[in-house]
Amino acid sequence: MDDILATLTYDGALALVERTYRVDGNDVELTVTRVIRAAERGPRPKELKRDAFSIFFRGNALLPQRMYTLTSESETLQNLFIVPVGRDGNGYEYEAVFT
Q: Quick one: which of 2, 55, 83, 84 has the fewest CB in 10 Å?
């Protein structure tokens, strides 16, 4: 299976908005709510293969910061490190950062 995360770009991540993923094969689900490009800080260093961006997810369960496997009908995001970054009346928000 290809590692989609290794080649995912900002533009590719935009296509994931509103997609829902099952977390580690259980009943917890996260939905991609937005994708934000990191602030421009001058030219990208040669060592980085892509521009930095973040994917934000929304879910109803509190998940600790760690790596998860997220599965949708069309792809699997293996070993995705997510961090809880907020909570409101709509649930919990998580962020995955790509550099």
A: 2
Query: What residues are paired with 22 via a beta bridge?
Result: 29, 71
Region 69-81: mean pLDDT is 94
Q: Which domain holds residue 1?
A: 1-53
In a domain? residue 94: no
- Specify the DSSP class assigned to residue 38: P
Q: Do the domain assignments include residue 45?
A: yes
Lowest mean pLDDT among 21-35, 37-51, 60-74: 37-51
| Nearest-angstrom CA–CA distance, 17 and 50 | 19
pTM above 0.85, yes or no: yes
Q: What percent of the chain has pLDDT over 70?
A: 85
